Amino acid sequence: MFISNAGRFAICVALVASLSQAASAADILIVDAKSQPESLTVAPGGVMIVGSASSPFVYKVRSGSSVAEKFIDASAEGTGTFFFGMLADVSNNMLWTCQLTPVPNTTPAQRHTALRGFDLATGTPKVRWNLPGDNTTCNDFAIGPDKALYITDTGTGRIYKLAAGASIAELYLEHRTLMGIDGITFLDGTLYVNNVVFNKLYRIPVDAAGKPGTPVDIWMDQPVKGPDGMRAANGKIFVAENGSGKVSVLTINGDKASVTVIREGLKTPTGVEPAGDTLWIAERGAGKAVSVPMPK
Question: What is the second-level CATH architecture of the domain 27-293?
C-alpha cells in the first residue's frame, strides 16, 4: 500500500502522541510495594517528590525516570518517623512536609508531628514548627492568595496558618466539624477542606476582617468515601478517595458539588497533584505514583 510523505508524517505524529499519552499514564514504583506513598508533589523541571508513610524518607523521581532516589532522611528523628503531606512552594524554593513521630510507650498510641520546610532543590532543612499538643496529626497544606501556608491537623480538628516569611504558625480555625480534617485547597481564592472520617467537604467562609467562620457543608451529588489529598486546578477540585479506591473531580456550584470519577480500582489512593497535562496520584496501598491525563 502506498503511503504519501504527508501520510507518513501524520502517522509519525500519531505515534508520538500515542507514546506521549502512554508516558503520561505511567506507574512508578516508589522503592517497593510497602513504601506507602501518602502524598506527592511536583517541583520545577518535572521532579516528583514523594513522602513515605512507612519509613523516615522522602524520595524524588527525576523527570523521565522511573527510579525513586532518597532525598530526605529523617531516621535520626526517632523510631517510626514517617511523612504525610508534600507541597512544592516554588516561589520560596521550599518543600513543605508533615513529619510524624510516634511517642514511645503510650496507650493509646500518640505521636508528635512537625511542619518541616526543606530546600526544594537540595533537601537542606530550613524551617521546623512543632504542632502544639500531646497527640497531633499534621496532614496536609495549601498556599493561600495571601501567600500564607494553611496546615491541617486531623487529630485536633484545627487549621493553622503560617504567614509568608514566618517560622511559627498561628491557630486559624478550630471547630468540632473539623475533627477528621484532611485535604485542603484554595479554589478561586476560597478555602475548601474535607473530612476523611465523616466523608464531608466544607467551604471556610471569611468575613470582611479576614476572620474565618463556621465551616459550610458542601452537598455532593454522590458519595465520596474517605476523601484524602485534595488539590485545585482548571477551576475544579481533585480529590483522592482512600475508602473507595477512586480519584474524583468536584465541580463546585455555590454550596453544591458535582462529583465525576476519573479513576477507580486503586489501592488506597491518598494524594493527588495536578502537573500540566498530567494528574499524579499517590497510590499508598500499592507503593506507587500513578498518572492519568488531566481532564479537560
Answer: 6 Propeller (2.120)
